[in-house]
Amino acid sequence: MIKMFKVLGFLFLMFVIISCNKDNPSPDFKYNFYPLALKKVLIYEVDSTDINSFNKTTKNFKFQIKDSIADTYIDATNRTAYRIERYKKQANETVWRFQKIISRVLNTRNAEETIDNKTYIRLVFPPEIGTSWNGNSKNDFIEKEFSITEMYDTFSLKNLAFKNTLITHFEEVNLIREDKESHTYAQGVGLIASDVRAVDVDISNQKITNGFFYTMQLIAYR
Asked: Is 70 exceeded by the pLDDT of residue 8?
């Protein structure tokens, strides 16, 4: 009889645990807005303009870049980091030329990217509208406060369609300077678009005197 009570007590305890788990499921931190997996490849189309006040020139560049997750390694803080090989080519070319190595790490509460020996916080988790963070907290640049400003159930980009996307935004504007960044991420894909503007402005006529701006849009991925 005692043995039977023990069995019934065990079954009741398991029932309580299962019921509690159903009522309080583990939170979804939505890490798949920044997915990292070996052999993942993303190809972007870039349209960039550079304005040089020194020699008074304006140059436009159109090209493609390809980010390929080639390997993983354990970094100096004992975390798993993903090594991304970035390639570049002109739109009318067929041969990709190696450009640089990028490192990305997915932490419990944020996503890091190290490029040109500088580390940036690209996203925080779980991503929610209104959430903000200093994107430069891991480097020696001035503070840049990003925030998640929009989230969509569906989003179209040229010939590509995505489900569940979000937009991160930074903006700092005054009479002589405009710094703006907007980055769009899609669940299961990662970064799908960027719009960056960093220019000096003539206070008398608000014309751009120096700086750069570019757009980057995903055109293929696997």
From this structure: no
**Whole-prediction pTM:** 0.87
First to last CA, the chain: 61
Query: What pLDDT is recorded for position 18?
Result: 47
What DSSP character marks residue 143? P
Domain count, the chain: 1
Burial grade of 84 (CB within 10 A; 0-12, 13-18, 19 or more): buried
Spatial separation of the C-alpha atoms in residues 96 and 45, rounded to whole Å: 13
> What CATH number should be reported for the domain holding residue 135?
2.40.360
Where do the DSSP E strands lie in 25-137? Answer: 41-52, 57-74, 80-90, 97-106, 110-115, 118-124, 132-134
In a domain, 16, yes or no: no
Alpha carbon distance 104, 112 (integer Å): 6
Sheet holding 110-115, edge to edge: 118-124, 110-115, 97-106, 80-90, 57-74, 41-52, 208-221, 190-201, 177-186, 160-173, 145-157, 132-134
